[in-house]
Amino acid sequence: MSKIRLNVRLTKKLKSMLRLFIIVATTFLGLLLVTFLIGRVVPIDPVLAVVGDKASAEVYERARQELGLHLPIYQQFWIYIVKILKGDFGKSVLTANLVLDDIIRVFPATFELAIVATFIGVITGIPLGVISAVKRGSWIDQVTRVGGLFGYSLPIFWLGLMGLMFFYAKLGILPGPGRIDVFYEGIIEPVTGVILVDSLLAGEVDIFYNALYHIILPALLLAYYSLAYISRMTRSFMLEQLRQEYILTARVKGVPEWKVIWKHALGNCAIPLITVVALSFANLLEGSVLTETVFSWPGLGLYLTRSLLNADMNAVLGATLVVGTIFLTFNLFSDFLYRVFDPRAR
Amino acid sequence: MTTQNADTPLLEVADLNITFPSPKGDTQALHHVSFSMGRQKLGIVGESGSGKSITGRAILKLLPSTAKIDAKKIVFNGIDIQNATEKEMRQVRGRQIAMVMQDPKYSLNPVMKVGDQIAEAFLTHTRASRKLARDATITMLKAVRIRNPERVYHLYPHEVSGGMGQRIMIAMMLIPKPKLLIADEPTSALDVTVQLQVMAILDDLVTDRGMGLIFISHDLNLVASFCDQVIIMYGGRIMEICEAKTLHNSTHPYTKGLINCLPDITQSIDFLPTLERDEVWLKD
Amino acid sequence: MSYGVKQKYHAMQAWFLTDTPASAFQAKAGHVYTRLLVFKSNQLAILGLLIVVMLLVTALFAPLIAPYDPLATDLANRLQPLSSEHWFGTDEMGRDIFSRIIWGARLTLYVVGLVAIIAAPVGILVGTIAGYHGGWLDTVLMRITDIFLAFPKLILALAFVAALGPGIENAIIAISITSWPPYARIARAETITIRNSVFIDAIRVQGAGPLRIVIRHIMPLCLSSLIVRVTLDMAGIILTAAGLGFLGLGAQPPSPEWGAMTSSGRSYILDHWWLITMPGLAIFVVSLAFNLLGDGLREVLDPKGEN
């Protein structure tokens, strides 16, 4: 009897996993299609870009064959898919490296920035959101909401420039653009690529502090936007939970109010909040494009904009694809986390 | 400080008025509600909106903060509820007065194990180890006639049936041994067969512990058969207070109207009467 | 107000707010009136509305309002601070910043308006069709929507502009392509809720075909949540457009696009703060206005805040 039940449950799980896999696969395929099509929309003739406009007809035709442009478009797409899955994003026109190598080199900087920013956003955003919800209408609530509203309205590149102007140019308490001071560059071996971690691993405390000083301003900038989002969602979730009847039950039991709020109500927000934090992290990838441009932070965002300004399509599309994939992964991951942690969904 | 003796009522409410502000002007939800009770089963019957639930919540001082309470007296077991601070009320809630709500689907915390929720009720009012709390919880689950209490402890609210959920609620509310239990429509969300089981459990527990019970419901027959005394409410006002035994002989027009609306399987009538409301009943 | 006017006003209010409307028109009018009252009580939303109106007026009457030609350079007077002649100072080419901001309002409005006109209808159409038809069409359309949602907006817009080349029209196309998916999602969600309701069955029984049902009955009901979402999105669209401008991918110089102005002022930030502060403030104020307006509209039109 129980064996049948076990079989039924297994097939159900397999079915849902298969469904998930199909969704992931088709979305990823779609990502590839979009980047492929964008690459084809370029008004510049890619053959001319390679052979120059003084080439003869034969050279032109040979190059065209080599680039595979004579093939029907769906075949070109197939070749593209195979290439991407093998990790071949082509070569960067600017750096002459493989795009994949470039991306691997620059990604840790963005990752470091996003992690620090998300961390700050979470430890400030969640408590602010909770207090906002509990003390609805108080000055904390107003300030948080206004601050959050500003977070949806302030242009990030402008705020970054303002920050640089005040703290670096006028007050001189924080360092200027870049990840670490020039004379510290190249001293420690990159293990993880995250300087904050690598410097500690190498025991170079000076470098650690220097890196910390450099990351504060851009991280705070991104953290502000993360905070705006997280506190708003926390407030919204908390307000919803505080209306529920189990909160009344807890109060009837005589549970102290702080426990009612932080254990019972927030506890029920925890699961959707995990999703929010994951999404916030992913959204910071977008914010990092402009932040890295302002702070000359050598991450994926700066790489993307530099490649763009130099019409380096391989690099642009490679970076776009990577960011898209990460974004997609995070969305799915947060959905997965939801399922894992919610007792009702099991 | 309690000054309780055999003659002092357990709960005394005198001239309770509750008003809620609204954009269209204040609405008065309770008008001059007065009653007292001892260690007995008191029923409060009324339609939706008659103010019965609000009365229950007022005793626990768990109304929304916008509510304005104005009473001559709300005294429970010698404690002046009306003027009690939040801190004092937290000592009262759970320990002295508890409340069972209608639907365990909503009134239980969905992400906590049911056993932990009951244990929390225990630990809030008693300094004890977690193990002691667990044992007390298991004992209480047995008292509400749940088989396999060790297994049920680890279940989540969505994994238990309505009847079991309500029994868990009762266990949770009675574990700190309160003197008064307010049951706000405890069986309205249950199937009829389950209703009787839950009522039986409530009856036994309340009688064994010598507790007072306020039973709020819209079901006149249920209240009449279960309680000692009945309060009939309408429009935020008390229409009548009478003994359950004499309820069916009541002369108050509203009560009579309610009784007449109840279909009776033994009688054969052509026309089921509806309640004719008289505005006079709403005059102070 | 004189007594007679006051009386008429109260009578009108009573007519709107009566509990017993005499006609469907009166009921509907009363409904609208109550919502207007809610909106009116939200001072911030009114502020937002005023600023948006100001933006429209400024853009329309730019030639009349701006004291100088936004493109006229005057190198003798470059990098001048705020003064009575140049309210916002001059930039590195001697152009009057105030005038450039006024004319920049036109560009902002152009971008926001076109994106809304392109993205919203596409989104509604895709969403309602997917929601109403269901089945394979729904799956396919939603896959496509999800694919576009899988890219962060700015980055996808960047990729498109990289391919199409810089310029304000390309920027508009790029932003529109990234903006329609959320509208499709909302429209689909609403359609699914509505399509199962009894009144749709009733209309179907009357013989209405699916196209008519979708266009005449379902789409109007999606409108309120969509209006809220579009208004709120405008803030983000302004920021994205400014971001593209900052990177040099939007309107090309010497166009007075606010993002581009911020970028060119970067080198002078130390001693000439007004070059980037003014355009940045303009972006901020307009974006904030749309957010406030959108929040106010949401209170009125979509109070459950499901979107």
* β-strand amount of chain A: under 5%
How many beta-strand elements of chain C? 0
Q: How many individual helices of chain C?
A: 12
Oligomer: heterotrimer
CATH topology (fold) name of the largest domain in chain A: MetI-like fold
Summarize the topology:
The complex is a heterotrimer of chains A (346), B (284) and C (307).
Chain A: H1 2-41, H2 46-51, H3 57-66, H4 73-86, H5 99-134, H6 139-151, H7 156-170, H8 195-201, H9 205-242, H10 245-253, H11 257-295, H12 300-309, H13 313-341
Helix pairs in contact in A: 1-4, 1-13, 5-6, 5-9, 5-11, 6-9, 7-9, 7-11, 8-9, 9-11, 10-11, 11-12, 11-13, 12-13
Chain B: E1 11-20, E2 27-37, E3 41-46, H1 52-60, E4 68-70, E5 73-76, E6 79-80, H2 86-92, E7 97-100, H3 104-107, H4 114-125, H5 130-143, H6 149-153, H7 162-174, E8 180-184, H8 192-209, E9 212-217, H9 220-226, E10 229-234, E11 237-243, H10 253-261
Parallel strand pairs in B: 3-9, 3-10, 7-8, 8-9
Antiparallel strand pairs in B: 1-2, 1-4, 1-5, 5-6, 10-11
Helix pairs in contact in B: 4-5, 4-7, 5-7, 7-8
Chain C: H1 3-17, H2 24-41, H3 43-60, H4 62-65, H5 97-133, H6 135-149, H7 153-164, H8 168-195, H9 198-205, H10 210-246, H11 258-264, H12 274-301
Helix pairs in contact in C: 2-12, 3-5, 3-12, 5-6, 5-8, 5-10, 6-8, 7-8, 8-10, 10-11, 10-12, 11-12
Structure at a glance:
The complex is a heterotrimer of chains A (346), B (284) and C (307). Chain A has 346 residues and is an all-alpha fold. In chain A, 77% of the residues lie in helices and 0% in strands.
Structural account:
The complex is a heterotrimer of chains A (346), B (284) and C (307). Chain A has 346 residues and is mainly α. Chain A has 2 domains: 18-85, no CATH class; 100-345, Orthogonal Bundle (MetI-like fold). Chain A contains 13 helices and no strands. Chain A has helices at 2-41, 46-51, 57-66, 73-86, 99-134, 139-151, 156-170, 195-201, 205-242, 245-253, 257-295, 300-309, 313-341. The relative contact order of chain A is 0.13. The model of chain A has no long low-confidence stretch (mean pLDDT 86). The two termini of chain B are 35 Å apart. In chain B, helix 7 packs parallel to helix 8 (192-209). The longest helix of chain B is centred in the last third of the chain and has 18 residues, at 192-209. Chain B has a domain at 97-177. By secondary structure, chain B is of the alpha/beta class. In chain B, a hairpin with a 2-residue loop joins strand 5 (73-76) and strand 6 (79-80). Chain B contains 10 helices and 11 strands. The relative contact order of chain B is 0.16. Chain B has a 6-stranded mixed sheet, with helices on both faces. In chain B, strands 1, 2, 4, 5 and 6 form a 5-stranded antiparallel sheet that branches. The mean pLDDT of chain C is 85. The relative contact order of chain C is 0.13. Chain C contains 12 helices and no strands. By secondary structure, chain C is mainly α. Chain C has one domain (47-68, 84-301): MetI-like (MetI-like fold, Orthogonal Bundle). Chain C has helices at 3-17, 24-41, 43-60, 62-65, 97-133, 135-149, 153-164, 168-195, 198-205, 210-246, 258-264, 274-301. In chain C, helix 8 runs antiparallel to helix 10 (210-246) and helix 10 (210-246) runs antiparallel to helix 12. Chains in contact: A-B, A-C. At the A-C interface, helix 1, helix 7, helix 11, helix 12 and helix 13 of A face helix 6, helix 7, helix 10, helix 11 and helix 12 of C.
